[in-house]
Amino acid sequence: MPNRIERDADRFKQIVRGKLRQNLRKYVTQDEMIGRKGKDLVSIPVPQLDVPHFRYGKNGSGGVGQGDGQPGQPVGKGDQEGAAGEAGSDPGGHIMEVDVSLDELADILGDELQLPRIQPKGDASLWDEKAKYDSIRRNGPESLRHFKRTYVQALRRQISTGVYDINRPRVIPIREDNRYRSWSTVKQPLANAVILYMMDVSGSMTDEQKQIVRTESFWIDTWLRRQYQGLERRYIIHDAAAKEVDEHTFYHTRESGGTKISSAYQVCWNLIETQFPTSEWNIYCFQFSDGDNWGEDNRRSLQILDQKILPVVNLFCYGQVESPYGSGDYIRSLQSHFGSARENLILSEIEDRNAIFDSIKTFLGTGN
Length: 368
Known about the structure:
The chain is α/β, with parallel strands linked by helices and 368 residues long.
């Protein structure tokens, strides 16, 4: 019987995953996922999923082969629809919800898009051993003596032997009462990859475009976290000037102004130079813009990208969000300058929310 139950449970999980795959594009475009962490559970509505249950007939209620029928009489009683807008006493149909972790959704995303598994490089893929104090022993060095546990043990001994005097509450530990902190060695992964996000927050980027960028960045981040034991992230926003910000600011800031893409590239390069040695780190850069850039800045932007950033990063992805205000010229500048000469430069045009799914495939399908 347990094996049968397990088989039924596995089959049910497969059905759920199938429904998730069918509706994955819709889930990826939802804003409310932003801010969740890998172990968070997400309630996913799964429509048209028939959960196995018993159905009981209605004996004596008539039907095919039971009594005389009249011409035009419907076969079977059928479900009675309630009048619109009126209160009723009968339960209605419900859409079932299942709890799925973001890690599992990331796995489904990777399978559905056929994203490759990534091989880390450099010393940063090593594991670090760390001592964790997680138990108590009867012997050990005096420097690790646990005074509270020792006192409690001495008090227990004195009470059990009748030595403890409530009028003179003195607790004197002896050698057998001593308790010492002990440790076990645990392995902790060292961060071996860094994602550098760059987003244009200038006046030509509308709130809808910024939300598209944040949504796509979130899913890229979620999937890459599943590939690396440790993952560092850095966030850069820019208009005419760039600055590094924290995750919350990146996902919620609203600014305006002109656009100089080179300012973001310079901050990106400074971070690589000072914090992330290229021999040890897998570096992924994701830049999002509406393609509007101050004309004279194009030359400097392409120079920094060509001579400094592209030679050292695993992947540089540029996503251009369609804008009613921006010129959209920058992606054409990249295409004209680089052509297909740089394999680690990936370009994607994101027309709307529905294009997020395909853009992720374009960026991460390379497997660098």
